[in-house]
Amino acid sequence: MGIIIKTPEQIEGIRKSSQLAGNTLKMIEEFVKEGVSTDYLDKIIEEYIRDHHAIPATLGYHGFPKSSCISLNEVVCHGIPSSDTVLREGDILNIDITTILNSYFGDTSKMFTVGNISENAQNLIDTSLHCLNLGIQQVSAGNRFGNIGFAISRYAKAKGYSVVYEFCGHGCGVEFHEEPQVEHVARRNTGAIMEPGMTFTIEPMINEGRSRAKVDKIDGWTARTADGKLSAQFEHTVLVTETGVEVLTDVSGEMN
């Protein structure tokens, strides 16, 4: 199957699910503090999503056991919430939310911090957010998907960081994962051409050290940096419009 061009009805459904995902991230912020477990956060997230007549998409997805992905410090992505993982001063963490509302999907993530964090950690977070912004700026009808990854990787490397290439963004909306794969490292003017009605995620994972990630052999999900250094990530679901881009999961107006 190729890249799905969504109908106006589908776009409205994806927009509503995306807004719920974004609002879930806003809601959980006050609970992210020293001494709480990631499992505690996950339970609050699931309750909020279900209270809004939606389903957490990750729960049971290929066997994933929780309602969100929570990835601390050197965890690149797909961290499994656990009662044994307790937040400590100086931690940085990514919380990744995907909602299913009336059969439509919205996918977003952002970084959170616990207390005072190191200058290195803050610089990494700032760079990761800017990489996402640069990727979103490339979204317009007629542009090629490779220019997203080109802009992201050029900036990250200029700042002295690396970009994870083993995981990528993806089409999203009527399914959790659709075509295309949205690479965060790519050559300029490569890939498919963007068209109005396409919806997909951009979610660059930026590493303090080497770009490689290792998936935990025991749980089969948790991906950590190969060198144990920090990783950071932000993610939005976007819509290609006739005039540019709509950031569907941006409920705070940060991308306007």
Offer a concise description of the structure.
Helices cover 26% and strands 25% of the residues. It is an alpha+beta fold and 256 residues long. The longest helix has 21 residues, at 8-28.
Keywords:
four-stranded antiparallel β-sheet, single chain, alpha+beta, three-stranded antiparallel β-sheet, 256 residues, 4 helices, Creatine Amidinohydrolase, 15 strands
Order of helices and strands: HHEEEEEHHEEEEEEEEEE
CATH classification class: Alpha Beta
Mean pLDDT: 97
Q: Give unreliable regions as ranges.
A: none
Fraction of residues in helices? 25-40%
Q: Please tally the helical runs, counting DSSP H or I stretches of 4 or more residues.
A: 4
Structural summary, described in words:
With 256 residues, the protein is an alpha+beta fold. It has one domain: Creatine Amidinohydrolase (Alpha-Beta Complex). Helices cover 26% and strands 25% of the residues. The chain has four helices and 15 strands. Strands 1, 2, 4 and 5 form a four-stranded antiparallel sheet that branches. It has a three-stranded antiparallel sheet with strand order 3-12-11, with no helix packed on it. Strand 11 and strand 12 form a beta hairpin. Helix 1 crosses helix 2 and helix 3 packs antiparallel against helix 4. The chain is globular and about 45 Å long. The two termini are 32 Å apart.
